[in-house]
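Our consortium's second objective concerns turning raw sequence data into structural hypotheses that experimental partners can test. To show how far this objective has progressed, the report includes one record in full. It was chosen at random from the queue rather than selected for favorable results. The single chain below, 150 residues long, was entered without modification.
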Amino acid sequence: MGNVKYKLYCSWHIDRAWQKNLNKIPNLETRNSVYKTLKTLQQTMYLEENMFYENLNSFITSLQEDPDTANFGHYFISTYFKNCQQWAYCFRKGCGINTNMFLESMHKTVKYFYLNGKTVKCLDKGLHALLNYIRDKVYMILRKNKFNLK
């Protein structure tokens, strides 16, 4: 295998981590404002990368200057500032994708319907659940096509 061209963070996991750590901001209005700014930074497709970095630096400065958001600002800088190419949509232009929702949906189905929400430590149990998932998917496709042929 060759080198990976793009390494992207899952948008859902980024959002969940941000919301979990936004609790470090005591004021609810400030928390909502910071979250809205984060999502705007993440989802805006900037024409130039310079605009993104200007907005990001301005956002970080405002986080550091406010005593209520300084703790979250430290978390954001240490975790996401240096990796902005992996979570900001403006860097995903040439990737051909912007999400992995299908894979996440399949993972959720296998985990909660075939493994009863448990984490599997044994490879054979995980493979058994995947094979059951594939079996059921193939059955549904064949059944759907059978009714369409009549």
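The partners drew two points from this record. The chain has two domains: 11-91, 101-149. The two ends are 45 Å apart (CA to CA). Both points have been shared with the crystallography group to help prioritize constructs.
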